[in-house]
Amino acid sequence: MDHRITVDYSTHNGLIRKELYGSGLHIFVSDRNISDFSDVFKTLRFPAVRNHDWSLNNPNQRLIDIHHIFPLMHLDPADERNYYFAPSDEVIRLVYEAGSKVFYRLGTSIEHTKDIHFNIFPPEDFHKYAEVCAAVIRHYTRGWNNGFHYDMKYWEIWNEPDGHINMWAGSDELFAEFFAIVLKRLKAEFPELKIGGPAHCGFKPELIDMVKKECDKLGVQPDFYSYHMYANDLDTPEQYGSEPRKYLDSIGWNQVECCINEWHFIRSWGGVHSNVTEESYRRSTEGRDGLMGINSAAFNIATFVIWQNSPVDSAFYYGCGKAAWSVRYPSQRFNKNYYSLLMMRDMVYDFPNQVAVSGGTTTQRAIAGLSDDGSKAAVLVADFCGSEMTIPVEIQGFENPSAIFCMVLDDLRDNAHVECRQDENGLFILEKSEPGSAVFLLVLEK
Q: Is the domain of 311 the same as that of 380?
């Protein structure tokens, strides 16, 4: 059977969407004197980064989370002296200086404290909490309290309220009420900004309905609905890329954007968030099927491709900290996810003009683009756990193509340059070294 991938450079499909190339990664401030992450962050060139969990990755620094910025909720939210912005100002300054924008999550970082909680209880006074959130927005967008005028458009109310053991120690109904009250207050002062949430653990229509009911009572509507995706198959990104949009339209939220602002490959939460032993952690994070392995990298590329022509408005890859969710192994060597992000970056910035792609097997996803001057072309192909050893690529509509280089990411190689031969029919043959996951970036010129 012919499983060739056909790329037609004469059929244009708009731009490769860089708004799907967001992340949770940032420049760490706590230990910059020991290990400065700035160059890595600048190299990846994320257009936007979401700041959830940043306080967890900067030990001994009170930043980003509302309880760090305004620690004593009995005080007056109108009094500038009651806020502590300094470390948050610094990490945000570094991000903007590096060329990215911040998608700001209002609330708290995740709390894995077992049977006791500190920061995930519902606020005692929802209206007062909303005033504090408004002050934070005012500080970063309108210069309040020795603040700034950043282009910081997206503001999210809370994170994973359906994670009752680590993110919201209250009922779903209570959260829906809280969300609507805070949303109404913030939209009243900042109509020019995008304010939404609530970053559900997954796509959950029944929870959307609860939030909508409370929003309808107050005559308000979020600008975006955010949700998360952790998966290990290609059907899930297909579903999460289309079903939420359909559902939002069906309930009259046609103008509400779809934002997947945490996503990552994961085989099992065991070994990462439960039943953690030395062996289970190693197995869950390293190796081909771990969080940092080649299956994760191929899943990243395939998901990026799937969402390009979906109704998803924005996406943020959950590479965030320095441990399991990092772009480095514990040894500090870059892991497979890092190299997959480099490939996405190259497509977004060097070959931004998307063209038509068809064919391939059920395990393969491909995207192709042209440079702005039309002189160079690229094809990015992910094979996620596929058994085929060769991937034929047919090039149409790009006169007399010749390969500048072919790059492969697999279990043994990290974006290594390899020979890419053409067969007697002019097909470019991408060759895997073994069955399983691999990613190829083929760059051509006329």
A: no
CA-CA-CA-CA torsion sign (268, 270, 274, 280): negative
Q: What is the pLDDT of residues 400-426, one digit of tens each?
A: 898 889 999 999 999 999 998 999 999
Does one domain contain both 366 and 288?
no
Q: Helix and strand tally (H, E) in the chain? A: 10, 18
At residue 260's C-alpha, the angle toward residues 254 and 266, to 5°, is 145
- Of 301, 332, 350, the one marking the end of a domain is 350
Helix (H), strand (E) at residue 210: helix 205-218
156, 142 contact by CB (below 8 A):
no
Pair (136, 266) in one structural domain: yes
Cα–Cα distance for residue pair 312/253, rounded to 1 Å: 14
At 94, is the secondary structure helix, strand, or coil?
A: helix
Round to whole Å and give the CA distance between 244 and 223.
14
Residue 321's pLDDT is: 82
Q: Residues 190-245: pLDDT tens digits?
A: 999 999 999 999 999 999 999 999 999 999 999 999 999 999 999 999 999 999 99
CB 176 within 8 A of CB 210: yes
3-state secondary structure of 311: coil
Q: For the residues of 358-379, what is the DSSP string, one character each?
A: EE--TTEEEEEEE-TTSSEEEE
Q: Specify the length of the chain in residues.
A: 446
- For 253-281, the pLDDT digits (tens) are 999 999 999 999 999 898 888 888 988 98
End-to-end CA gap in the chain: 30
